């Protein structure tokens, strides 16, 4: 069974940094692209970032480009999101997510339960 | 970046109704489109990928169609379990983008 467990969320002041982690299990991690998707309270889904299986292809939403960095460690079955210069509007539940296909990036099949990031002074 | 526009934002319908949700892309995405269903307090679930291919758990009353810039999600006969929020997402190119969502509620 696929499991994605996020950690690292919390309350942080504007302008500060936070690093999210996602521990993956139940599948061959280094076969799949991975993603971060966020959802602000009461709002819709926003795709944040994606990374291919070998880190050769990386993308970011315009809203986070230059501030957030996605990375992965295939030896540790882990995905990361380094978030710098955080803003109030970054407040959201952050989901770690797995590609549907081993030949992706494609659609998102599996989701974690999310970790809540609150940016407030 | 590719913008995804869903309509309607809210849809009120009754059990047994046929409903259609539309998603338009600001440029061609070929068939790189997925539909997700989300219920309150839960993570989204993938319904359809490649515009029209149903995930294995999805009942046949759901269908997807379209290519290029215009896509639809249709539920042929609404069941009580179908009331939720639906999102389209393009995965033709980074950055991927979601539509703003369609909340389907009970009339």
Description:
The complex is a heterodimer of chains A (121) and B (107). Chain A is globular, with a radius of gyration of 13 Å. In chain A, the strands form two sheets. In chain A, strands 2, 4, 5, 6, 9, 10 and 11 form a seven-stranded mixed beta sheet that branches. The termini of chain A are far apart. Chain A has 121 residues and is an all-beta fold. Chain A has strands at residues 3-7, 10-12, 18-25, 34-39, 45-51, 58-60, 68-73, 78-83, 92-99, 108-111, 115-119. In chain A, 42% of the residues are buried. In chain A, strand 7 (68-73) and strand 8 form a beta hairpin. Chain B is an all-beta fold and 107 residues long. Chain B is 0% helix and 50% strand. Chain B is built from no helices and eleven strands. In chain B, strands 2, 4, 5, 6, 9, 10 and 11 form a seven-stranded mixed beta sheet that branches. In chain B, strand 5 (45-49) and strand 6 form a beta hairpin. Chain B is globular and about 35 Å long. The model of chain B has no long low-confidence stretch (mean pLDDT 97). Chains A and B meet through strand 5, strand 6 and strand 10 of A and strand 4, strand 5, strand 9 and strand 10 of B.
